[in-house]
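In response to the reviewer comment on reproducibility (Comment 2.3), we provide here a single inverse folding case reported in full, input and output, so that an independent group could reproduce the run without further information from us. The structure tokens appear first.
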């Protein structure tokens, strides 16, 4: 893969009910990284989609009295529609019921069979339908008369059936070696340690087919079995690049994936099974898996089964899509879990968007409109306070690219919003409304610098709040091609003589 090609994915979602904030969260994080990379001149392929096979989906379809395919068509569309509502910039939407995906899964299966990594036996053990996961005996406890997985808290059932197995145990040392050689394969580091400890404690062979239901991709030449839904689902990352056609441009340009964004509940699948499957099939593993924490409502994971869901669409209809995106990216620390509430959403919109960035844009644009007919010339004479603002800003810009490239969105946002804060303070201190009477050259320089700051902040916030920042950048007459991050390498964005357009209010303060 070329250095400047970047392939990023979200998890593919189970269409087993309506999408909720947890799904929106995974998708928005991935979208922010995708947009940042595009603005930083990479060629990006951003994938999302739906994971439509397995017992969980078969049961949901039965509950709704629909054929599984018809049920999936219906709910997958809801997830696809959500990509528009969330303003995701995905390049493709994959469904595991598509033919292109079936071809890829069957090919991968054959490779694993040919390499001797798959054998036929019998599975006896615990299975959770809601996680679509097998659990070891020591991972299951009794709770209120039910058997529960200690890993996820979901109920498990006893399963005994013929099954093909993947020789995961044979990959234990190779996986540890792989983690060792690729220090940033799993981020954040705390999660990496968790995975390494789990692998060190011993891996058992993994059951990779089921015989007690039919909704899935049939095992080639043995259609009593359907392929385990996780082996099926993970392969979506390959099928969207037209694997097994390895000569295909997409595959050549974008595999191995740069970044799989996932929730911490599905880390084992992505950080253990997935690289093991790929290595066994002689395919390069992805470069990185970034695992975010959960969105909590109070102290509990937000989930359908718990009935504590904040609906992203309702929030967007009431407050706006940029507002929700910003809130989720700013308030929920990415490695750990984070509680969300309407009150903290309102506080966040008011303090960062309305009072800080929005206010900065509004006050500068309306002053330039009312006092300078939207035209400003910079005479390039820097005052001490100009130099200070420029130096302080440079300092805050310094780590931004690295922050993003290490999925440290929290520090990134803090720095950018701090630049906005410093610029507001600069305006307060310089008082252009007074300079208008005493020194119009100085006033122009001050406003020019403020607009240059606004341009930078807007490009930096663009991946997070694309709609609002686009309005600002349009008002500054910065065309799409110029909205990139080359200024991080110390260039200015604006010409010395500029003409701007009016800007409408960006963020209403919420009472
Ligand atoms: N279908 C699998 C993923 C297969 S990827 C090859 C799956 N689907 S899911 O719909 O259950 O969840 C998808 C993602 O949404 C997971 O990464 C999960 O962590 C995330 N979220 C679901 N609820 C969540 C929260 N309450 N908080 C944050 N994210 C959570 O798993």
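Designed residues, in position order:
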């Amino acid at each position: 893969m070329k250095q400047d090609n970047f392939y990023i994915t979200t998890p593919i979602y189970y269409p087993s009910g309506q999408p909720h904030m947890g799904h929106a969260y995974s998708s928005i994080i991935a979208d922010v990284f995708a947009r940042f990379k595009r603005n930083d001149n990479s060629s990006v392929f951003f994938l999302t989609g739906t994971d439509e096979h397995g017992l969980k989906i078969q049961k949901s379809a039965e509950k709704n009295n629909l054929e599984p395919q018809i049920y999936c068509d219906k709910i997958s569309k809801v997830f696809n529609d959500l990509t528009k509502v969330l303003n995701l910039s995905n390049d493709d939407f994959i469904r595991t019921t598509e033919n292109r995906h079936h071809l890829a899964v069957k090919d991968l299966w054959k490779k694993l069979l040919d390499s001797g990594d798959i054998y036929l036996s019998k599975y006896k053990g615990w299975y959770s339908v809601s996680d679509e996961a097998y659990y070891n005996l020591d991972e299951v406890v009794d709770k209120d008369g039910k058997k529960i997985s200690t890993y996820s808290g979901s109920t498990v059932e006893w399963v005994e059936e013929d099954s093909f197995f993947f020789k995961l145990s044979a990959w234990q040392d190779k996986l540890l070696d792989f983690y060792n050689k690729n220090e940033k394969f799993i981020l954040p580091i705390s999660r990496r340690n968790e995975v390494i400890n789990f692998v060190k404690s011993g891996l058992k062979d993994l059951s990779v087919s089921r015989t007690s239901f039919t909704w899935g991709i049939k095992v080639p030449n043995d259609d009593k079995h359907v392929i385990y839904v996780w082996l099926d689902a993970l392969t979506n990352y390959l099928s969207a690049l037209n694997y097994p056609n390895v000569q295909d441009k997409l595959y050549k340009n974008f595999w191995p994936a740069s970044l799989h964004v996932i929730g911490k509940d599905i880390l084992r699948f992505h950080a253990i099974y997935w690289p093991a499957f790929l290595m066994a099939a002689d395919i390069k593993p992805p470069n990185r898996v970034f695992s975010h924490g959960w969105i909590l409502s109070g102290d509990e994971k937000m989930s359908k089964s718990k009935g504590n869901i904040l609906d992203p669409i309702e929030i967007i209809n009431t407050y706006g899509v940029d507002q929700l995106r910003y809130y989720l990216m700013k308030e929920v620390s990415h490695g750990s879990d984070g509680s969300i509430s309407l009150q903290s959403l309102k506080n966040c919109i008011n303090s960062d968007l309305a009072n800080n960035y929005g206010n900065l844009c509004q006050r500068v644009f309306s002053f330039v409109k009312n006092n300078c007919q939207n035209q400003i010339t910079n005479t390039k004479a820097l005052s001490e306070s100009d130099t200070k603002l420029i130096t302080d800003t440079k300092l805050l810009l310094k780590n931004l690219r690295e922050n993003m490239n290490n999925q440290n969105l929290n520090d990134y946002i803090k720095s950018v919003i701090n630049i906005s804060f410093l610029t507001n303070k600069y305006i307060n201190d310089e008082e252009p409304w007074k300079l208008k009477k005493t020194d119009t050259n100085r006033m122009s320089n001050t406003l020019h610098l403020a607009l240059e700051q606004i341009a930078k902040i807007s490009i930096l916030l663009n991946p997070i709040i694309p709609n609002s920042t686009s309005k600002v950048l349009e008002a500054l007459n910065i065309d799409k091609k110029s909205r990139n991050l080359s200024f991080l390498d110390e260039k200015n964005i604006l010409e010395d003589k500029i003409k701007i357009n009016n800007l409408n209010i960006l963020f209403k303060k919420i009472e």
